[in-house]
Amino acid sequence: MTAPASVSGPAADRVQIFDTTLRDGEQSPGATMTLDEKLSVARLLDEMGVDIIEAGFPIASEGDFEAVSAISGVVRNATVCGLARTGAADIERAAKAVEKAHKNRIHTFIATSPIHMARKLQLEPEAVLEKIHFAVTHARKFVDEVQWSPEDATRSEHDFLVKAVQTAVDAGARVINIPDTVGYTAPEESAALIRLLRERVTGIEDVIFSTHCHNDLGMAVANSLAAVSAGARQVECTINGLGERAGNAALEEIVMAMRVRHDILPWTNGVDTTRIMQASRLVSQITGFPVQYNKAVVGKNAFAHESGIHQDGMLKDTTTYEIMRPEMVGLTESNLVMGKHSGRAAFRAKLKDLGHTVGDNQLNDVFVRFKALADTKKEVYDEDILALMAETGADGAPQRFEVKELAVTCGTTRSPKAELTLIVDGVEKSATETGDGPVDCCFKAIRTIVPHEAKLQLFQIHAVTEGTDAQATCSVRLEEDGRIATGRASDTDTILSATRAYVHALNRLQVRREKSVAPQEAKAG
Ligand SMILES: CC(=O)SCCNC(=O)CCNC(=O)[C@H](O)C(C)(C)COP(=O)(O)OP(=O)(O)OC[C@H]1O[C@@H](n2cnc3c(N)ncnc32)[C@H](O)[C@@H]1OP(=O)(O)O
Ligand SMILES: CC(C)C(=O)C(=O)O
């Protein structure tokens, strides 16, 4: 067992990371994990360099006992810790569960706030002090490393809290963990409490102070870091901030804050940050708790940029809008999301990624259509953009005909009717047609505006992406004197997509006519 370091010792700047995903995290309603799931989380935490894994509360159930025992058998580097109340049965159960561990710890606790002592425990403060003495002394019979916590410390009276901590230290506790059980404290107060205890409790040269913060007011991480600034050298936290009610301090935020702002948070820890995304995804997948999109460090949008100005900055220098590189947390790259706020720089880069190098005119043409599409969709996917490219003649076909306006009426009580305006060689031309269905009306209207003999050989519709806002991609194949031309178009409006696909095919047919492309060669089109 390694000796805990004091803040003035050689490892003064090293903060121990105590992960309680498997204990406090599992206390989130609905987050119960199976033995195998707990083992996979524990293995990953161990590999990524967490110092202490709180594997469970062994007296809670047979399953919890088995999980803590099994984890004790597989963890190679980290200390395995089991939680216990102050009674002998709890402590002995925890001791048994962690006995196989390569490094082990018992974490015993009892509440010290007036409300918890009087209303929940229904014990006089003196009786609580006796239980602290018993619990720590008893736990020390089984393990060297005993951690003690005054539950609801931040709502405890200071004089009594000092007495309680002194009792635990005198009884042999090596780690004093100060929980903000109900997420009530604020950063300055959190720091002040650690400072007060370090000043008033005696015999703490070999004692590590620890912080355990809940997120009820969204301050868990700030409160934890404030406690560290006052001398705490262990932080209790969970992956994704999982935990009772609003959760615990998030491990990934604590670790990355120390890494990214080492200039003002000058402490180190042993976590390999490149495993963070893997851990986040594993815990989310096992618990079924989705990670909030805008969650710091591990949210889907933490390294995503949709705004044109930001994307332009990112393309020029990623440090304009990113304070950490995605690789630091195990992602391969940032994500420039194409949407209504995107600009030309990002759009050009996206086209290049998709294999299309375009000139300024072509870029402008596709970009206008992209913006119109983005106004109708939450996110524009690569497939949407490829469909736009095909439609806009970015494949080389000049745009003699273009859809200007379309209005279609149909339903159970009226015959389908299409009112269509095309731009033909720069001139607006309109037609109104009825037919067997909305698509038939539109195709008839095209034929009225641009008379031609080409036969419709094929008409197909399929969805490019998923959801009700998916783009419908339509393909139209026309045949005229052995010449074949295929047109494609995409839009969230299926009828508009079909109409544009027909017009696209007509444009390509026109190219074939003008070049007098031989029928066999034209088949490739
Ligand atoms: C702040 C925290 O996160 S603390 C950890 C919270 N986690 C959990 O409670 C999850 C696991 N818990 C359980 O499975 C159960 O509550 C058990 C097995 C621990 C206890 O179950 P039961 O014996 O049925 O008791 P129950 O849960 O109803 O009540 C808790 C009892 O523990 C007592 N208690 C609470 N904390 C402590 C403590 N630290 N030391 C001693 N007794 C305590 C309560 O006063 C209450 O005693 P009472 O029954 O004499 O009134
Ligand atoms: C057991 C203690 C540390 C706890 O989880 C809390 O007080 O929140």
TrEMBL record:
Keywords carried by this UniProt record: Amino-acid biosynthesis, Branched-chain amino acid biosynthesis, Cytoplasm, Leucine biosynthesis, Manganese, Metal-binding, Transferase
Gene3D superfamilies: 1.10.238.260, 3.30.160.270, Aldolase class I
Binding site for Mn(2+): D24, H212, H214, N248
Cofactor dependence: Mn(2+)
First-tier enzyme category under EC: transferase
Gene Ontology annotations for the cellular component aspect, listed alphabetically: cytosol
Molecular-function GO terms, alphabetical: 2-isopropylmalate synthase activity; acetyl-CoA C-acetyltransferase activity; manganese ion binding
Pfam families, sorted: HCS_D2, HMGL-like, LeuA_dimer
GO biological-process terms attached to the record: L-leucine biosynthetic process
Pathway noted in the entry: Amino-acid biosynthesis; L-leucine biosynthesis; L-leucine from 3-methyl-2-oxobutanoate: step 1/4
EC number annotated for this UniProt entry: 2.3.3.13
SUPFAM superfamilies to which the protein is assigned, alphabetical: 2-isopropylmalate synthase LeuA, allosteric (dimerisation) domain, Aldolase
Boundaries of every Pyruvate carboxyltransferase domain copy: 15-277
PROSITE patterns in UniProt: AIPM_HOMOCIT_SYNTH_1, AIPM_HOMOCIT_SYNTH_2, PYR_CT
Domain of life: Bacteria
Function: Catalyzes the condensation of the acetyl group of acetyl-CoA with 3-methyl-2-oxobutanoate (2-ketoisovalerate) to form 3-carboxy-3-hydroxy-4-methylpentanoate (2-isopropylmalate).
Subunit structure comment from the entry: Homodimer.
Similarity-based family: Belongs to the alpha-IPM synthase/homocitrate synthase family. LeuA type 1 subfamily.
PANTHER family attached to this UniProt entry: 2-ISOPROPYLMALATE SYNTHASE 1, CHLOROPLASTIC-RELATED (PTHR10277:SF9), HOMOCITRATE SYNTHASE-RELATED (PTHR10277)
Protein name (record): 2-isopropylmalate synthase
Gene name tied to this protein: leuA
